[in-house]
Task: structure prediction
Amino acid sequence: MSDAKNARLEYDGKTVELPSLTGSENETGLDISRLRAETGIITYDPGYGNTGSCRSSVTYIDGEAGILRYRGYPIEQLAEKSNFLECSWLLLNGDLPNTKELNSFTNNITIHTMLHENFRKFFGSFPKAAHPMPVTAATVGAMSAFYQEKDTPETLHETTIRLLAKYPTIAAWSYKHSIGQPFIYPRNDLDYASNFLHMMFATPCEEYEVNPIIARALDQLLILHADHEQNCSTSTVRVVGSSQANIFAAISAGISALWGPLHGGANQKVIEMLDAITHQGMSAEDFVARAKDKDSDVRLMGFGHRVYKNFDPRARVLKKACHDVMNAMGLNSKQLEIAMALEEIALNDEYFIQRNLYPNVDFYSGIIYKAIGIPVNMFTVMFAMGRMAGWIAQFLEQKESPEFRISRPRQIYTGAPERNWQPVDTR
Ligand code: ACO
Result:
């Protein structure tokens, strides 16, 4: 902090000094934490769009420049050279693991993938048609009833392992429950992504042979979704954690926040768009023409991004993964053919080029999930599987922060002024 850069706010005849803070990438914020104490006024920022809620060293984003880094490492390098568990270690510990650390971490995750047998009954108590998202949120919340230790550095380490290890099992079982199939137990000889695919698609009657190209694409998807700084669900995890609620409660709340269509649901919209195009028998060209027409309210779903005004770095990685999966699986549906045609047309169309509208991460993730047979109602569950690492890292960072305090925003009250109680009929 440097005094020279302090801001001065004048209000109602008073002048307040607002210290400035500069981050390691030169982002600047004004510290208004003393504003109310010194002047009685608060700041107003609905949706917190211009509010820094914490200092964090986990993830850096520059949307204008198309940059996303975990602990300083560009996402493109991590997606190419790392796997999801290595990235999770990085997010949690701040540096990449050495071989011994990674092997031990991977082994620890692998041997903790089973759920307590009582969870079979727990799953069975949900209606058959239950959406997997509330089932996984409830299961993670319920884990705090099975693991009741107080949060200490040692127990939090164990809990981190449990959450990362068991979430794929919870996710796959929520799906198996929704289609009425028997639960499939994890296999310790498989890597993280392959084990999940096995639990999703094997049955007691038939093994599922994991295609390594698909497992790799899935692993990359988990890496790309692992963190995205103070987004809605991560902020939810921090807000719940700020009351010193246990980590299971905080992560369960994060899963619920992610479920909202404005947050985790965008890739579902891509598939709905592809369904609508096929049902209406429209061509990709006709649909793009409608998306460009200002008199229609149609948009090309999966194109454009609020933060990234350049190619979303995650989409760049996924474009390749998507094409790899397509080559491995073949264009096994009309929807996938249309998706590839939409991509080709829009990437070469002046309308999209001029407005910097590139495919976003949801365009490709939706298509990859569709191609490998993951149903649409599991898309957000998959997102949560990757984001689990980031949520835990952010929860732990907050817990260790010297600035830890309960989240408690203020408001501008716009209700009735004081009035006296009297029976409504005599008014
Ligand atoms: N299809 C057609 N035109 C588009 C699209 C699109 N997908 N996205 C933006 N435009 C046009 C707008 O009509 C506008 O045109 P104009 O300048 O002629 O009026 C221009 O591009 C800028 O659009 P804005 O809405 O101002 O851009 P903004 O940054 O606010 O919106 C958003 C970003 C909401 C993501 C938008 O691009 C969109 O609706 N995309 C489709 C939905 C989608 O894929 N959402 C997922 C985003 S990824 C995520 O949230 C994790």
